[in-house]
């Protein structure tokens, strides 16, 4: 365990940014998102969740993966160079780290998405939550607001300093290179981590019990909740695009004359043309099927395929849905128990 | 540095939407009269200035046009009675709006050129080319791909 | 993938001197969908067209791009060529590499690059061309002529002679129009009525002509070949079938009203025929001035009518009729004098318009054509004529020349001398314009034989002095102020369209210029057609002109109408808007911008998740649509699409031209 | 450089033959000749025309055909429109194979009943020809195929010549509406299947066609005594990325591209009714 | 507000039980303090779900597109801004006035949860109440009072039509109309030079993730198929490249020209806070300047300014501004 004085953070960032591109939460026009650090960056570590999850870095909204040239009858395909993976994500909240592990299940399963794999070589420095928001519910999925096991380095906010713990070899190597900046905390400070973790877990107001939700959710396909929940849905993509685990994509071509490129871009199961087939048929013809798909996917289908929930309880969709469609209501419907702290 | 940086040897690409009955005919007359104007101007024929949707103009900018001209009949002379009156409103608004989002107004020009104004067609096109040359390439609306 | 053929024309050296044809061919071969690129010295020549036709067949071309002169020149030619080879003519696109390229650029490299770009654009458009089929529709073989003056009468007679039914609509109770008001005509001095009345009678008697006097057009719908017109036949209050035209009714009628026909210089009765030679010779009751209608008293006419033709109960009749063609011949008004205070019109009875002069000098006019001063019924001695009152006057009147004033004023000077040999004519003029057969000779006669004094200059003021009128003017030739003590001042007023011409233009959907004269489709080549197919123009409603010109134009308009009516069916231009009903939201923004009333709404019933849903969509009348595309641009979701200039095509053109 | 799973290879369209008014069959070979990749019947490939897009199709040729892959493609959208427009010799992009294909091992020793409608013959054809190559491994083969009209029947040479000529193989054709010159059976495929009355004994039915046909075929087969486990179909049109990532083809917890596209109806019945 | 809420519930129950309508659209309270969302009530017994509080911001009018055509009649509640949106739908011929039974709810402003959060008042917050111009933030063990306008949505502060312009039945008394200047931000941008403006908008548009919430919430966006979703022609690519985002926002704003009712919902729902209001208001301001004042949504019978003309219109594109 080490620590860094908050006053020295700019120094740290400058140092890290020299080693590799450094992404951390920054504010622009009142919006906090992960962005590459540069001199004078308005870093906002204290805010809980960025608007967009760090998914947007490991799985960017759109990326070109091949270029083509089509002349007369001839076609040439050139792969795009795979993306740089040696960057650092700093200040990722535990739920978002968990979100990335969910994405891993999809993109690292066979056949491996090499672009994703490359981007995943990044170093993730997670910052524990001291005081989760009312709309956070990561603990529902067995996650802990004060700890991100899948991170390379874990940080805890000790007011004037950040406590620093490397969790992986990669984290350890990086930590070693920072001896000038890191200090050894006092035993009391080291001990405070446990306290911070516990407090954070207690502060999360709603205590969830998700026993059997996975199983019950499976039988929810014909549940009455879908008949009412979808009616107010606007069919926008906020919930899916802001979700740290949503990974649906589309493939598109862009061309200018004989040259062009093929890209992959985020898509949303909330959009009415998401499953529209060329024949004009649509297996999910109304918003009801789409809303159901989204929640069933998080709570039943994804667990069925990959063994873990497709939701990490970050609360983004709860906070940003223009009409307050709230996944916790669905969880309750599926038998999730809830009690207030 | 301005976003629209000047480049040396910059040859602007200017797309001109010309209505068939007045401005396209005016361009024809400029041709018949061998009135020279820069080859940077490329004309797309439309039946009427009212056929031109702002989408086409934006698309032209996206795909690399440095300037766009919409040319129609003089007010009152529209072959289709009132098309250019609608165009007048549409492009008055669009030009101001583009300027509002930071696009130099000079990049979108609207002119009334009649079938008999061949020399005016040539002159207007010359002027626009000169202006765009000074402004430099359009980088603001251009698709980077 | 298409099979597009690109044909590049050298146009002799017109294109080939500035555009490197070889490079262009090479580049064209590489363009998407192009399977053939070739050239010809003159693509429009017999050999060029043969080459095109042959290649279409050999190469199985499904689209053709011709790089040549302007499509305004030869698009039709090449469409016919393609059609001859079995290709739908609308699968042909023209790249204008002459007018828009080789003729306007000097640098060969730049011109070649541009030519390639223009061809690439045409290829991109052609790839998205769809074969279009003109729609065939039946022509209603009946014509409508609006306006019963000489233009309308002539047009009606010509059309009727060709064997087609004509409805001749006239607003006043009689046909005849302005010409009926005139005394003599220049430069021959033959009697206007003498040459007009036979034509009026002919028109009335012609089996193919149906006179609708005292009637007005109220609504026009439809399109070329199938106009649907509503005509209001105002209540005449006299049963035309019974009336014998004996005239007893208006002899006995006690109400007197200023006669419109006599320009207010004489009185008529409340029941009247406007003038003795009126056609039809059937009186009409002016209900505004009739005692029966205002006070429910009198009824003398009804009592005296031997044929019991007077019918107070008659009401307006709305006639709905379909026509294939319409000739508009609504004539002219004189400019209002309110703003020309210096001439004192209206302040003294001896200051009159040229039209009033015509009535005063006319044997059937007030005073039996003795030409006496309205104020005291004395013969005038000095008569001042003023040219260009309101004409050629940008600031207060009209910028244009009214064209006929110079000649009729000369005529008036002559007529004055004929009636009163002792009288003296003074003519203030700006220029004397006598372009016309025998016009200059006639003018010279007025000056030389009839001793009219022509003063080049403007009249500054006319004001009464005793029983005379003092006319102050300037003679710019001698640069002297002139004062003339006149007995009569005649103002040659500017011609204007009828006061309600603008409304009619809107109703018909034809253009009118800044002065509300109707606009011809082309000032040189289509002078009697309007922009709207099937609507033709005749006479002074289109601009000032004299009688022979009017008659000639009426004949020309009639010929155009006949040519149209002669067809059993018409083909519509297939480049019209089409609605994608699946995209159409039914907001009808398209309807609001359509200048031709070609768009209407239509209910649609469809099944949505097992339930019937009714919704509105736009519908295009293909015959009314002229293909301007305003609706396509106004349609947010892109449901409205102009065939031949579709969204897809324009987008492809933009993409291609920007490469 | 590592290969992106969505990266296709260039292939040549060697031959195009017209089957019906809106169906063409394309023979697609690798640039250097031969099949672009090996596959099993029922597997699919993603074809694409650059600048237009990708679309997924069943491979209709059998693995024994080593010179090229065949695809029978019906004109339905932007990509298929474009494919119908290309000419022999044109290059396109292809990636695959995707999906698991038919359970050929499980079919061994069974009587096979193929029931196809319209373009639905395409995936079945691959398996039919596979079985005919390995004729000894299978019992009787019955092929019931129907289309809207005689002109809409695809692969006519095989329907009329090749298949009936194979031992213990019978082909039954039907058209929805009869017309001049058609002396065969008239009527919808599901009814014809019932009329023919196949025995479920040691049989496996494999069906593909429009959803409405499948629905009635299923009902008909159940009436004939077939168990849901004995009936297989393919849902390949639901696939998008083909590699289990794009999140589009799932039916409940199953991904068509990973778990399918061939399912038997016992499996499908366990899934939500979203197919 | 409570009083109006009681009336809402009573009226909803009344019109449902009388059979006048077969659906009532209103708002329901969620679990969390800021959650007040649209609810669909088809049974009078459910009328008790209805709420009216400081968070009833979603406009209910657009739901009519999906709901009204297969219903006998639908009752719904409108704030001032909602009513304007309804009229825009009327003008676009998307809803049938006769089939809507409209309850007007005069509105003096609603609370923006983000402002509450920014002020740090959100932790542990249970609910927010209003008395006159004062808000009370209620926590488990304490209360905090503050002036209401501080926490109102910006769009509420500039609201010019707080009292619905179309309704069948009014709940409560009309509230005073006292809008702040709405063109301040537009004017400020107009005052900058063209490159500064570009950089400003570039920053905003770059953030766009194309979630289409702005479009989907907009009462003037009622196309059956949006031009941006069409695949042929493909106007808008799916890549969120800057120029594509520019195309999206410029085109969308332009489609709104003369049709935007300035309800501010687009800006409210934007997850990345693109100031969409400024785009729409620029167009509103220009229309007012060039063609005379026009407030979309006030009178659905009026012809919108961009589908009509006046022969004497100015040719504003001839003005050449120094940049």
Low-pLDDT residue intervals, each spanning 5 or more residues of chain D: none
SSE topology string of chain A: EHEEHEEEHHEEEHHEHHHEEHHHE
Strand order of the largest sheet of chain D: 10-9-8-7-11-12-15
Shape of chain A: globular
Q: How much beta of chain D, percentage-wise?
A: 25-35%
What is the CATH third-level topology name of the largest domain in chain D? Rossmann fold
Largest sheet of chain D: 7 strands, mixed
Q: What is the count of helical runs of chain A?
A: 12
Oligomer: heteropentamer
Secondary-structure content class of chain A = alpha+beta
The helix fraction of chain A, in percent, is 25-40%
CATH superfamily of the largest domain in chain D: Nucleotide-binding domain of ferredoxin-NADP reductase (FNR) module
Q: What pair of chains forms the biggest interface? A: A-D, 56 and 48 residues
> What is the CA-based Rg of chain A, rounded?
22 Å
SSE blueprint and pairings:
The complex is a heteropentamer of chains A (341), B (145), C (659), D (275) and E (323).
Chain B: E1 14-19, H1 23-32, E2 41-46, H2 54-62, E3 67-72, H3 83-100, E4 108-112, H4 118-135
Parallel strand pairs in B: 1-2, 1-3, 3-4
Helix pairs in contact in B: 1-4
Chain D: E1 9-18, E2 23-30, E3 44-49, E4 53-58, E5 69-74, H1 78-85, E6 91-98, H2 104-107, E7 111-117, H3 121-133, E8 141-147, H4 156-165, E9 169-175, E10 185-186, H5 189-196, E11 203-208, H6 211-224, E12 231-234, E13 250-251, E14 254-255, H7 256-259, E15 262-264, H8 265-270
Parallel strand pairs in D: 7-8, 7-11, 8-9, 9-10, 11-12
Antiparallel strand pairs in D: 1-2, 1-6, 2-5, 3-4, 3-6, 12-15, 13-14
Chain E: H1 2-17, E1 23-29, E2 36-41, E3 50-51, H2 64-67, E4 74-78, H3 80-91, E5 100-104, H4 113-118, E6 125-131, E7 134-139, E8 143-147, H5 154-157, E9 169-170, H6 184-190, H7 194-207, H8 213-217, H9 242-256, H10 265-269, H11 276-291
Parallel strand pairs in E: 1-4, 4-5, 5-9
Antiparallel strand pairs in E: 1-2, 1-3, 6-7, 7-8
Helix pairs in contact in E: 9-11
């Amino acid at each position: 365990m080490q620590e860094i004085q908050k006053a020295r953070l700019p120094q740290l960032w400058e140092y890290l940014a020299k080693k590799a591109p450094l992404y951390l939460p920054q504010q622009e026009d009142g919006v906090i998102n992960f962005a590459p650090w540069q001199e004078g960056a308005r870093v906002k570590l204290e805010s809980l969740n960025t608007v967009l999850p760090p998914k947007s870095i490991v799985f960017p909204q759109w990326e070109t993966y091949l270029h083509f040239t089509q002349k007369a009858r001839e076609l040439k395909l050139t792969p795009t160079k795979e993306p740089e993976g040696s960057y650092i994500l700093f200040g990722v909240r535990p739920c978002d780290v968990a979100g990335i592990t969910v994405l891993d299940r999809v993109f690292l399963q066979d056949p491996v998405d090499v672009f994703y794999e490359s981007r995943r070589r990044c170093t993730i420095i997670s910052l524990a939550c001291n005081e989760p928001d009312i709309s956070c519910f990561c603990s529902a999925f067995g996650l802990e607001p004060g700890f991100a096991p899948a991170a390379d380095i874990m940080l805890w906010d000790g007011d004037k300093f950040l406590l620093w713990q490397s969790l992986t070899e990669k984290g350890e190597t990086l930590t070693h290179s920072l001896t000038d900046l890191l200090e050894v905390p006092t035993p009391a400070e080291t001990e405070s981590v446990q306290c911070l973790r516990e407090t954070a877990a207690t502060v999360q107001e709603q205590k969830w019990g998700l026993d059997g939700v996975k199983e019950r959710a499976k039988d929810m396909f014909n549940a009455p909740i879908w008949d009412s929940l979808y009616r107010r849905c606007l069919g926008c993509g906020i919930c899916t695009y802001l979700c740290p685990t949503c990974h649906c994509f589309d493939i598109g071509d862009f061309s200018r004359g004989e040259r062009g490129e093929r890209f992959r871009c985020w898509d949303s199961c909330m959009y009415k043309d998401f499953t529209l087939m060329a024949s004009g048929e649509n297996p999910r013809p109304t918003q009801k099927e789409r809303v159901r798909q989204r929640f069933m996917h998080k709570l039943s289908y994804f667990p069925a395929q990959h063994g873990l929930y497709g939701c990490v309880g970050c609360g983004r969709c709860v906070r940003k849905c223009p009409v307050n469609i709230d996944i916790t209501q669905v969880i309750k419907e599926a038998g999730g128990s809830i009690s207030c702290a | 540095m301005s976003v629209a940086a000047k480049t040396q040897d910059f040859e602007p690409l200017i797309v001109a939407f010309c209505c068939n009955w007045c401005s396209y005919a005016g361009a024809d007359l400029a041709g018949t009269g061998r009135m020279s104007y820069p080859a940077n101007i490329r004309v797309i024929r439309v039946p009427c200035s009212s056929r031109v949707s702002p989408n086409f103009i934006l698309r032209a900018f996206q795909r690399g046009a440095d300037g766009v001209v919409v040319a129609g009949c003089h007010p009152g002379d529209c072959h289709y009675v009132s098309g250019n009156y609608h165009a007048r409103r549409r492009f008055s608004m669009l030009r101001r709006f583009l300027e509002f989002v930071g696009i130099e107004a000079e990049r979108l020009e609207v002119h009334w050129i009649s079938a008999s104004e061949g020399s005016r067609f040539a002159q207007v096109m010359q002027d626009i080319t000169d202006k765009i040359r000074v402004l430099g390439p359009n980088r603001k609306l251009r698709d980077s791909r | 993938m298409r099979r597009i053929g690109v044909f590049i024309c050298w146009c002799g050296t017109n294109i080939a001197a500035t555009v490197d044809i070889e490079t262009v061919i090479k580049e064209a071969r590489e363009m998407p969908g192009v399977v053939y690129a070739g050239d010809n010295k003159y693509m429009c020549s017999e050999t060029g067209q043969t080459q095109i036709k042959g290649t279409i067949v050999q190469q199985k071309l499904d689209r053709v791009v011709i790089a040549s002169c302007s499509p305004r020149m030869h698009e039709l030619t090449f469409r016919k060529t393609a059609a001859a080879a079995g290709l739908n003519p609308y699968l042909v696109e023209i790249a204008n590499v002459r007018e828009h390229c080789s003729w306007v650029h000097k640098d060969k490299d730049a011109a070649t690059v541009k030519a390639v770009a223009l061809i690439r654009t045409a290829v991109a458009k052609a790839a998205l061309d769809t074969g279009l089929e003109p729609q065939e529709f039946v022509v209603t073989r009946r014509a409508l002529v609006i306006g019963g003056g000489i233009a309308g009468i002539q047009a009606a007679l010509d059309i009727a002679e060709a064997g087609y039914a004509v409805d001749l609509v006239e607003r006043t109770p009689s046909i005849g129009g302005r010409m009926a008001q005139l005394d003599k005509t220049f430069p021959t001095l033959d009697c206007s009525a003498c040459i007009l009345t036979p034509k009026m009678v002919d028109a009335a008697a012609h089996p193919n002509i149906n006179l609708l006097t005292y009637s007005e057009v109220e609504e026009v719908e439809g399109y070329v070949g199938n106009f649907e017109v509503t005509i209001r036949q105002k209540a005449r209050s006299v049963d035309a079938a019974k009336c014998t035209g004996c005239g007893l009714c208006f002899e006995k009628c006690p109400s007197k009203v200023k006669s419109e026909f006599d320009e207010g210089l004489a009185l008529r009765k409340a029941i009247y025929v406007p003038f003795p030679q009126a056609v039809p010779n059937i009186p009409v009751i002016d209900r505004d001035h009739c005692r029966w209608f205002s006070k429910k008293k009198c009824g003398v006419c009804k009592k005296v009518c031997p044929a019991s033709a007077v019918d107070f109960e008659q009401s307006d009749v709305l006639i709905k009729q379909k026509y294939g063609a319409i000739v508009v011949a609504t004539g002219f008004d004189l400019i209002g004098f309110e703003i020309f205070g210096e001439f004192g019109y209206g302040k003294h009875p001896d200051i009159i318009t040229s039209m009033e002069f015509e009535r005063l000098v006319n044997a059937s006019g007030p005073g039996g054509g003795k030409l006496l001063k309205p104020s005291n019924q004395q013969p005038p001695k000095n008569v001042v004529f003023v040219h260009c009152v309101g004409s050629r006057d940008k600031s207060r009147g009209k910028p244009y020349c009214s064209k006929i004033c110079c000649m009729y004023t000369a005529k008036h000077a002559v007529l004055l001398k004929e009636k009163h040999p002792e009288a003296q004519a003074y003519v203030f003029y700006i220029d004397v314009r006598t372009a016309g057969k025998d016009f200059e000779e006639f003018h010279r006669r007025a000056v030389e034989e009839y001793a009219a004094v022509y003063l080049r200059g403007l009249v500054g003021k006319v004001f009464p002095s005793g029983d005379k009128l003092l006319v102050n003017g300037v003679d710019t030739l001698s640069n002297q102020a002139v004062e003339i003590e006149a007995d009569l001042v005649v103002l040659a007023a500017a011609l204007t369209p009828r006061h309600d011409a603008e409304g009619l233009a809107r109703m018909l959907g034809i253009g009118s210029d800044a002065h509300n004269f109707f606009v011809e489709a082309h000032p040189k080549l289509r002078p009697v057609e309007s922009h709207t197919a099937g609507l033709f123009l005749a006479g002074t409603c289109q601009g000032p002109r004299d009688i022979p010109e009017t008659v000639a134009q009426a004949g020309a308009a009639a010929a155009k109408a006949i040519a149209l009516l002669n067809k059993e069916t018409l083909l519509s231009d297939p480049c019209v808007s089409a609605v994608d009903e699946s995209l159409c939201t039914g907001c009808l923004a398209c309807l609001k911008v359509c200048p031709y009333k070609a768009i209407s709404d239509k209910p649609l019933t469809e099944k949505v998740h097992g339930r019937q849903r009714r919704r509105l969509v736009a519908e295009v009348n293909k015959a009314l649509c002229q293909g301007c595309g305003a609706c396509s641009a106004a349609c947010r979701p892109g449901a409205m699409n102009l065939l031949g200039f579709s969204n897809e095509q324009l987008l492809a053109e933009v993409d291609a031209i920007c490469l | 450089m590592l290969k992106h799973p969505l990266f296709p290879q260039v292939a040549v369209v060697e031959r195009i033959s017209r089957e019906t008014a809106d169906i063409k069959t394309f023979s697609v070979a690798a640039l250097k000749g031969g099949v672009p990749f090996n596959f099993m019947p029922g597997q699919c490939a993603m074809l694409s025309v650059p600048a237009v897009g990708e679309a997924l199709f069943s491979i209709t040729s059998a693995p024994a055909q080593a010179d090229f892959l065949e695809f029978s493609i019906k004109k339905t959208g932007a990509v298929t429109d474009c494919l119908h427009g290309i000419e022999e010799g044109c290059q396109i992009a292809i990636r695959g194979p995707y999906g698991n294909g038919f359970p050929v091992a499980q079919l061994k020793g069974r009587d096979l009943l193929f029931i196809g409608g319209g373009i639905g013959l395409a995936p079945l054809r691959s398996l039919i020809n596979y079985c005919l190559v390995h004729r000894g491994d299978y019992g009787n083969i019955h092929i019931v195929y129907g289309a809207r009209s005689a002109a809409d029947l695809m692969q006519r040479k095989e329907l009329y010549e090749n298949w009936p000529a194979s031992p213990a193989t019978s082909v039954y054709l039907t058209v929805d509406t009869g017309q001049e010159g058609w002396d065969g059976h008239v009527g919808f495929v599901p009814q014809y299947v019932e009329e023919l009355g196949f025995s479920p004994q040691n049989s496996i039915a494999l069906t593909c066609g429009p959803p409405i046909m499948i629905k009635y075929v299923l009902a008909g087969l159940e009436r004939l005594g077939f168990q849901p486990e004995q009936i297989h179909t393919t849902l390949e049109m639901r696939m998008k990325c083909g590699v289990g990532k794009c999140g589009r083809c799932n039916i409940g917890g199953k991904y068509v591209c990973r778990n399918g596209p061939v399912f038997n109806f016992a499996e499908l019945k366990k899934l939500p009714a979203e197919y | 507000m409570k009083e109006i809420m009681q009336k809402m519930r009573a009226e909803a129950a009344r019109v449902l039980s009388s059979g006048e309508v077969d659906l009532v659209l209103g708002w329901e309270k969620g679990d969390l303090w800021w959650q007040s969302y649209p609810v669909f009530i088809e049974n009078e017994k459910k009328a008790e779900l209805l709420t009216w509080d400081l968070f009833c911001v979603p406009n209910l009018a657009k739901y009519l597109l999906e709901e009204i055509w297969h219903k006998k009649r639908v009752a719904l509640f409108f704030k001032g801004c909602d009513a304007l949106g309804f009229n825009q739908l009327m003008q676009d011929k998307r809803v049938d006035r006769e089939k809507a039974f409209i309850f007007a709810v005069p509105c003096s402003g609603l609370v923006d949860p983000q402002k509450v959060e920014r002020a740090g008042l959100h932790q542990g917050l249970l609910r927010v109440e209003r008395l006159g111009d004062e808000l009370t933030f209620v926590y488990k063990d304490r209360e905090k009072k503050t002036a209401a306008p501080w926490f109102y949505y910006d769009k509420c502060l500039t609201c010019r039509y707080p009292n619905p312009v179309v309704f069948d039945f009014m709940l409560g008394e009309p509230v005073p109309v006292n809008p702040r200047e709405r063109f301040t931000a537009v004017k400020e941008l107009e005052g900058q030079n063209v490159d500064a403006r570009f950089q400003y908008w570039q920053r905003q548009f770059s953030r766009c993730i194309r979630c289409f919430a702005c479009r989907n919430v907009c009462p003037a966006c009622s196309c059956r198929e949006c031009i941006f979703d069409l695949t042929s022609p493909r106007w808008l690519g799916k890549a969120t490249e800057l120029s594509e985002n520019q195309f999206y926002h410029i085109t969308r704003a332009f489609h709104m020209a003369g049709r935007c009712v300035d309800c501010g919902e687009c800006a409210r729902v934007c997850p990345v806070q693109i100031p969409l209001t400024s785009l729409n208001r620029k167009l509103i301001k220009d229309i007012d300047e060039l063609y005379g004042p026009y407030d979309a949504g006030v009178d659905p019978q009026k012809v919108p300014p961009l589908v009509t003309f006046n022969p004497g219109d100015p040719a504003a594109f001839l003005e050449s501004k120094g940049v």
